């Protein structure tokens, strides 16, 4: 097992997340008359901008974002609260045909999002065509809840004629869906999308405490930040063969001590991940520590370990340990 410790420096950071974490706390029923609440599930194929849209709608950085496909592995909730409503957004893994058990679990998260939504956001972009993963799209077309078809990345188009043709093509497949052309990256038309979501919310008391930002514990976001840095710093198979497990999360008033293990599948991957003299692992640790400090608004002492766990993506016991199977 290899180790890297990254010590906090004296750089000032500002906390991004100010709401408290909530492990599925049940909210009080004492709410305003006419209060609305609902689950808004975001689904679609990989790399169409689901996580970017999720973060934009929630107003916080809840999902990690990279240009690589299959960045999102879990179903991640981001909760928006006002005195009048609560929206529970869910970002889901991109729909794909699974090649191993990890991807089967990812597909299960996406399939499950079709069964418990009050509002469904199907996200595509200006490049994708409706015949990609047509079986899943056919299931979307059969849903009885409101479906909002979000066509992302319209900033890449040259004129309205192109957009009209894209909308017409998608309406043939999802005739009952409301269409929202947007650019999540440029924050274009997302406010109109949000307003429509609020209109469609059913009357309901909140499902979570009004101070909740997500259903995930703090440790989960540490693993996601570390994994994001691996996605950004390594190519080819390395990012997809990696999983992160937080072994220790010791929080004090002004600091957090974290120990995390990075799992890979082969010894050769371990060597690449660590780098010559530990240089690559040190880079990942330094970048992750800075983001974790910003996320929690506290100084962080981060220790990273690397361990080989052969074929973990196909081992049910490991997938359970990593939270992919209940």
How would you describe the overall organization of this protein?
The chain has nine helices and ten strands. It has 326 residues and is of the alpha/beta class. It folds into two domains: 2-14 and 218-321, 2-Layer Sandwich (GMP Synthetase, Chain A, domain 3), CATH 3.30.300; 36-200, Rossmann fold, CATH 3.40.50. It has a six-stranded mixed sheet, with helices on both faces. The protein has a four-stranded mixed sheet with strand order 1-10-9-8. α6 (218-233) packs across α8 (279-296). The longest helix has 18 residues, at 279-296. It starts with a strand and ends in a 5-residue tail after the last helix. Residues 1-29 have low confidence and may be disordered.
Low-confidence stretches: 1-29
Q: Which structural category do the helix and sheet elements fall into?
A: alpha/beta
Instruction: Please give the CATH architecture of the largest domain.
Output: 3-Layer(aba) Sandwich
Shape: globular
As a percent range, the share of helical residues equals 25-40%
Classified in CATH, the superfamily of the largest domain is P-loop containing nucleotide triphosphate hydrolases
Major β-sheet profile: 6 strands, mixed
Sketch the topology as an H/E string, one letter per element.
EEHEEHEHEHEHHEEHHEH
The total count of helices amounts to 9
Terminal residue distance? 28 Å
Give the CATH level 1 class of the largest domain: Alpha Beta
How would you state the average pLDDT, rounded? 83
Q: Give the strand line-up of the largest sheet.
A: 3-4-2-5-6-7
Please, how many domains?
Answer: 2
